[in-house]
Amino acid sequence: MPEAPLLEVDNLQTHFRTPDGINRAVDGLSFHVNAGETVAIVGESGCGKSVTSMSILRLLPEPPGKIAGAIRFQGRDLLKLSDKEMRGIRGNDISMIFQEPMTSLNPVLTVGRQIGETLRLHQGLSKAQAEAKAVEMLKLVGIPAPERRVKEYPHQLSGGMRQRVMIAMALACNPKLLIADEPTTALDVTIQAQILDLMRDLKHRVGAAIVLITHDLGVVAEVAERVIVMYAGRKVEEAPVRELFANPKHPYTQGLLGAVPKLGSSLTGEETRLAEIPGLVPSLKQRIDYCVFAGRCPKATDLCRKVDPALEAKAPNHTAACHYAEKELMAA
Amino acid sequence: MSATLSTTPTTDSAVSHGSTPGRPLLQVDDLKKHFPLRGGLLGGVTGHVYAVDGVSFEIAKGETLSLVGESGCGKSTVGKAVLRLFDITSGQVVLDGTRIDTLPNSSLKPMRRRVQVVFQDPFSSLNPRMRVRDILAEPIRNFGLAKDRADLDRRLNEVMDTVRLPRDAITRWPHEFSGGQRQRIGIARALAAEPDLIICDEAVSALDVSVKAQIVNLLQDLQRKLGLALLFISHDLAIVEHMTHRVAVMYLGKIVEVAPRRSLFAAPRHPYTQALLSAVPVPQPGAARKRIVLQGDVPSPINPPSGCRFHTRCPYVFDRCRVEEPLLKLALPAHTAACHLNDLPPEQNPLIRDGTPLH
Amino acid sequence: MLQPADVAVAAPLPDIMPPVKARRGFLGFLRRNPTVAVGGGLLLLIIAMAVLAPLLWTVDPTALAPARRTREPSAMYWFGTDMLGRDVYSRVVYGARVSLIVGFAVAFFSSVIGLAIGLFSGFIRWADAIIMRIMDGLMSIPAILLAIALMALTRGSVGNVILAITVAEVPRVSRLVRGVVLSLREQPYVDAAVASGTGTFRIVLRHILPNTLAPIIVQATYICASAMIAESILSFIGAGTPPIIPSWGNIMAEGRALWQVKPYIVFFPAIFLSLTVLAVNLLGDGLRDWLDPRMAKKV
């Protein structure tokens, strides 16, 4: 019997009430994250990946939103906790880093205060202890001259530095789970490389599990161990990273992989026209009880337009929700 | 075609020479754009942002030149200077033999038609209070391209067909379209003027992966079909490699390397280009790559470093770099780079020794 | 074509919220914009009251009747009578005309003038510094003091009240418009229009002006509300609408002396003024949400 997963999301549904219908932003999503594992949730805008992360931390306003299903963290269902209990988990056991570090840092507090605040709140450290820990955290995330930087305000730091501060804040209480929502999207490539290196390095040193939310398949390939592909609020495929890139089963995943040019393709001569996924993502304000990708899928048949495919194992550890994805023989 | 570039400003001779067949469509010579910084009680000039500081390049008819670099390197400013959205500080912009940076507004109009633009943000690049029809008719009317109303309608239908939008969508408002469709409208507006050169300022950067592929394919098809030249401004090296003929790499207001595509990706001759190439995450798990992670951040363009502007972050920096600014020099055929390392014998040059970061 | 050996059907997903009935047309509008509906409805009622004043069981609001002075509210005199025996109900109903005329006229004129100055100043660099310093100067004087000073220089009339309050409001609108124009000028679609050969005049007309209208309309409602209050204050202190014309400010001014014994003379016009200002402000808030394109995009 394997150990219970750190996080288990079971049939998560996050819906929003809007004047012209219920927006089914996340609909029936299940996945798990083991301790120390890096799981990427990948998909295009509006696929529900960010709503998923906000749902886990219960950061969505209710109403107009409503979350159903179960989110079990270390066996406890987060959706059943009181607001006070939830505050004790946020920033302590589960912490989050956002895409835009400038808007998620408080502009009128020094960096040291912001990191220290979390520590004093969750770990009851004294002011001096918190300050010392803040310096230590800044050192951990590779900020030069941390003793000076703790006294600075967010606007005095560059974009890359701010993201490092965000990471320092997120890691200050030794969380067991770190949710990183597009952590490098707003950064330039050379800075992105620094932050990705930092995240990989910290993962080994801190040992927190990471849920990485991103649209960038390159980032997924570099950081993740397991990948969940989301489309229109559902999980359409899940596999270990190498398996997914080498052997995508769902036509949407295949389409995504074909749509990105590969750096160095002009040298190897494997240049091809980019694959297009025709059409648009369906409106989530209507209930879709057939395959969500049927409208854009090159292989769609009447079956796809009538029957919603279940996620099934297509290869070891590899599930996809497609009627036509071939099943590889598995040990019975 | 020669890609040799000189960093010394040329004289007005560019204007005088007639319709030489081999003449580049666009020639930019030692372009500088310094934005004044105002401050103090009286609003006096307290300094300058050296956004673009001596940039030279040329684009042939039907060619794609990509301008790559990170945010703040001045690549978008170059695009706007070529569009003449503001007056430049110094240098020359020559379009098909006519110097356009000094042209008075009255005679600028026919030249404007020949250079059009597609912007990054599909939402703010279309006026929310104009119907698609009016947006597309604007350049046609301004440049007097349509003979009569019937001709205007024919042209409008034609550009809608070209960008693969349904003809009846023309009566709708911009907010009724998705991001990708809006970007098609932006491209249609550029095409309506029948330009020779389109400046794509991060034109696909804000789009989702699957939509990005659609727009990239569309731009490539259009270029082939219409013989357009593109100035493709982007930070996405994989897309650039996919689309371009030649690449110019910018760092802090200067071009540090210009090369034909294969030469640049196979044999980068500037440490910044190498670092950029090595930093791009590739969608290939476990790909063994040598990564050059640059330390620190890009210095401020208000107070750029002396000598080589990259010396504060360069892994190979030596004394000469801090005092002497390297010029763009031919490093390989048609491939120029501004790095002192290229003066070293090949066996001592780490750029050659270590090869490309790509496999 | 491949055929699936056995079709795996996903478990149906439940609805976790009651469905939203998407209403179209007028009802849908009310549902989506309750503030516009309440504010606009209330304002329409008050406008109807002002327009239809003679039909609403009123008598001549200026008819003096010394014999019936200061009567309490009753079935005969709904809001009572004032110290000159005039029917307060009729005066309040007719008084709505002054408040509404002043409010709407000031909102209209200050928006038009402010729009012109703001557009000019946002587009002509050299004029900007001069105009904005003048506006700063005007704004540093409290609006009501400026209006009192202007009223002191002129003869009291509704026209002059409108003029005085308009002068005080124009700097606010021009600042707003200038700010909007400066941010619109940076929009990529304006750059694209320049590249498309559009001249400056047409850029202002087609690309800038239409996009300034939404914030101006919202601002105009706030100006309308504040102009109504300003008119009442001016009338109350005797520097506004001439006493011969019944306006809410005048009625309150006249009732002031009897406030402690006959509070209803002040109470009724005050209630109507508050309701009208509330209606206009509600409408403004609702319009702001409705016209704001960012809000629209989210939904």
Describe this structure in words.
Chain A has 332 residues and is an alpha/beta fold. In chain A, 34% of the residues lie in helices and 23% in strands. In chain A, the strands form 2 sheets. In chain A, strands 6-7-8-3-9-10-12-11 form an 8-stranded mixed sheet, sandwiched between helices. A 4-stranded antiparallel sheet of chain A has the order 2-1-4-5. Chain B has 359 residues and is of the alpha/beta class. Chain B has an 8-stranded mixed sheet, with helices on both faces. In chain B, strands 2-1-4-5 form a 4-stranded antiparallel sheet. In chain B, a hairpin with a 2-residue loop joins strand 9 and strand 10. The longest helix of chain B has 18 residues. Chain B is globular and about 65 Å long. Chain C is built from 11 helices and no strands. Chain C starts with 24 loop residues before the first helix and ends with a helix. The C terminus of chain C is likely disordered. Chains in contact: A-B, A-C, B-C. At the B-C interface, helix 3, strand 6 and helix 4 of B face helix 7, helix 8 and helix 11 of C.
End-to-end span of chain B in angstroms? 28 Å
CATH architecture tag of chain C: Orthogonal Bundle
Distance separating the two termini of chain C: 41 Å
Overall shape of chain C: it is flat
Level-1 CATH class name of chain C: Mainly Alpha
The whole-number mean of residue pLDDT values of chain B reads 88
Radius of gyration of chain C: 26 Å
Q: Tell me the quaternary state.
A: heterotrimer
How many discrete structural domains of chain C?
A: 1
DSSP helix fraction of chain C: 55-70%
Largest sheet of chain C: none
Count of beta strands of chain B:
12
Main location (chain B): membrane
Region (Disordered) (chain B): 1-23
Membrane topology (chain B): Peripheral membrane protein
Keywords (chain B): ATP-binding, Nucleotide-binding, Transport
Output the keywords.
A: 332 residues; alpha/beta; four-stranded antiparallel β-sheet; 13 helices; 12 strands; B: 359 residues; eight-stranded mixed β-sheet; ATP binding (chain B); transport (chain B)
